[in-house]
């Protein structure tokens, strides 16, 4: 049976050869008894048994069966270009990791095996590992070749859309941006960046204004060709969908990830959408050696050190979007005492950066349409418990599934590190007990539930080269601050509008953390369990030294930390009022 199949395959691959008599290598006697020497078969006259047999390779039937295609090594103008005849039956594609897959038409394998081996050798010599060879139909191979932009493989050249995307990314890198916002309304698009915690329009000849098609083309190029494998919520970029992905990107000597989130919007002039891209650097670009380098006070940094020794309960970092929560949590993991002797596992949605101290990083991808009964967190929590962890960094708690996962891990005695969106440490209780996440107040006030509760925000630091004395620029405000908070305002400074050359005309340079921290006590938890929230807050804040010019932040709110930094001339006093207004802040000692 197998010989018959091989004969049929050879006949399909070489129909003309199959029609000819096949030399067997055994002479046939002629009349008169005369014998001739055995005929030597030509290459095309071999028997099916002598033809190369098909290897036991997988067969792919669609592009969906392949890794994300970053490049086509064998395209017409590529480094490993093939002739038109060979491109009909053979293709080499490149994935995110710089690895190659080879696809060959099964019916043409016997005829072109030598070309396949040659291509594999050329790739190997160029240090491009071939990780898999599979069979594919001619139609699929042709379809893949069609996805290649005509200019994409010319030496050093990328398509116009790709050049625009690179220009957008480069601008952000040069100006140390943390985010890009591409806002499209109707036929007009505006590009903005978050620099030093503030949004500003892209500067330059276009003033950040492009046509809809320009930005759509650049974004489509990035989403469709650069996305990391298994991180994209959809196969192709579609402006009217909520989409997410991670894009690994290299620009000059910079290696980073770009976290993508796009949303459709409303516009009277036509359809609208916005794409938000976060810069995630693969290696730490700031000289951070201790928590004080982020902006935490000495006693706040000491708290992080103490809980790193105990390693029990929940460490929760709260804050709004773009407040540096993940950076703080990652730094905590990287600086854990005795981390070499710990099994640290992270579960992130998705993983944003490599954490050297983690033994295992699990990257999840949730979608808006995911079945609530089968979320990544519900499927992974059993695996985590059986992985013998010491510390688990879970990432964001934002729904019932992630909340249940955190609770399960805490109940099994592990320290769990997580983030959530909340406006303060007191507000974290309301957030976690909401129907969206579903913790009971009984659980949140359990004796060993908490290890540390933190709220942090990022605020812009004043440019030291051009900042101005606040007593001169804001005399009424500084007078009120002196009267109400009893602090010296002579060192206070304000932002110079228009800035200087040192700050690029912004008046600010860099960001710093302002924070409030709490280790819930038994008395605090009892008050919270009884629903006496205001009394619980007063109990927490009673640990403060009640001085607004003191560097000690125990029992103090984020407002007080910001006010202290304003008093030192690090931030503008008007930034303090983004947390609470000066005349509305409740001073606990006045109501005690």
From TrEMBL:
Residues 165-534 form the Bacterial type II secretion system protein E domain. Residues 15-54 are annotated as: Disordered. Residues 15-24 have a biased composition (Low complexity). GO terms for molecular function: ATP binding; ATP hydrolysis activity. Keywords: ATP-binding, Nucleotide-binding. Gene3D superfamilies: 3.30.450.90, P-loop containing nucleotide triphosphate hydrolases. Belongs to the GSP E family. GO terms for cellular component: plasma membrane. The keyword Nucleotide-binding applies. This is Putative Type II secretion system protein E. Pfam families: T2SSE (PF00437).
């Amino acid at each position: 049976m197998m010989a018959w199949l091989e004969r049929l395959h050879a006949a399909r691959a070489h129909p003309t050869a199959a029609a000819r008599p096949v030399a067997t290598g055994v002479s046939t006697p002629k009349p008169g008894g005369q014998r001739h020497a055995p005929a030597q078969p030509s290459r095309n006259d071999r028997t099916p048994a002598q033809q190369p047999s098909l290897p036991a390779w997988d067969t792919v039937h669609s592009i969906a069966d392949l890794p994300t295609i970053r490049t086509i090594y064998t395209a017409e103008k590529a480094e490993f270009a093939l002739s038109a005849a060979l491109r009909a039956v053979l293709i080499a594609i490149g994935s995110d990791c710089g690895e190659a897959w080879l696809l060959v038409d099964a019916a043409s394998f016997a005829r072109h095996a030598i070309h396949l081996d040659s291509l594999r050798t050329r790739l190997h010599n160029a240090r491009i590992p071939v990780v898999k060879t599979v069979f594919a139909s001619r139609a699929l191979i042709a379809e893949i070749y069609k996805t290649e932009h005509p200019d994409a493989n010319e030496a050093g050249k990328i398509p116009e859309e790709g050049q625009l995307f690179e220009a957008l990314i480069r601008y952000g890198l040069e100006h140390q941006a943390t985010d890009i916002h591409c806002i499209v309304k109707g036929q007009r698009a505006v590009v903005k960046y978050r620099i030093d915690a503030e949004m500003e329009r892209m500067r330059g000849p276009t003033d950040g204004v492009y046509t809809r098609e320009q930005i759509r083309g650049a974004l489509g190029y990035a989403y469709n060709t650069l996305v990391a494998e298994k991180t994209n919520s959809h196969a192709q970029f579609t402006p009217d969908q909520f989409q997410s992905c991670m894009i690994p990107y290299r620009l000059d000597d910079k290696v980073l990830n770009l976290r993508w989130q796009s949303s459709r919007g409303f516009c009277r002039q036509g359809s609208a959408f916005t794409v938000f891209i976060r810069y995630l650097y693969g290696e730490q670009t700031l000289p951070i050696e201790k928590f004080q380098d982020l902006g935490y006070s000495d006693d706040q940094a000491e708290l992080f050190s103490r809980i790193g020794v105990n390693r029990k309960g929940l460490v929760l970092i709260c804050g709004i979007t773009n407040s540096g929560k993940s950076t703080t949590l990652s730094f905590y993991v990287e600086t854990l005492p005795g981390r070499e002797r710990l099994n640290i596992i992270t579960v992130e949605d998705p993983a944003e950066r490599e954490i050297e101290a983690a033994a295992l990083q699990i990257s999840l991808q949730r979608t808006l349409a995911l079945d609530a009964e089968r979320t990544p967190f519900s499927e992974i929590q059993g695996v985590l418990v059986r992985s013998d962890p010491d510390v688990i960094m879970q990432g964001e708690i934002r729904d019932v599934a992630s909340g249940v996962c955190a609770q399960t891990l805490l109940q099994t005695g592990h320290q769990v590190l997580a983030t959530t969106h909340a406006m303060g440490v007191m507000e974290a209780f309301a957030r976690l007990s909401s129907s969206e996440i579903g913790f009971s107040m009984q659980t949140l006030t359990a004796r060993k539930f908490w290890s540390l509760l933190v709220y942090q925000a990022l605020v812009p630091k004043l440019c030291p080269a051009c900042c101005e004395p606040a007593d001169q620029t804001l005399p009424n405000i500084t007078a009120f601050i002196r009267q109400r908070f009893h602090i010296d305002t002579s060192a206070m400074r304000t932002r110079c509008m228009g800035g200087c050359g040192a700050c690029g005309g912004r008046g600010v340079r860099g960001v710093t953390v302002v924070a409030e921290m709490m280790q819930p006590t038994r008395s605090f938890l009892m008050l919270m369990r009884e629903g006496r929230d205001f009394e619980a807050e007063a109990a927490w804040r009673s640990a403060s030294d009640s001085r607004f010019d003191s560097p000690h932040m125990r029992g103090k709110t984020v407002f007080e930390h910001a006010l202290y930094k304003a008093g030192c001339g690090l931030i503008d006093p008007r930034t303090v009022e983004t947390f609470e207004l000066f005349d509305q802040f409740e001073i606990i000692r006045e109501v005690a």
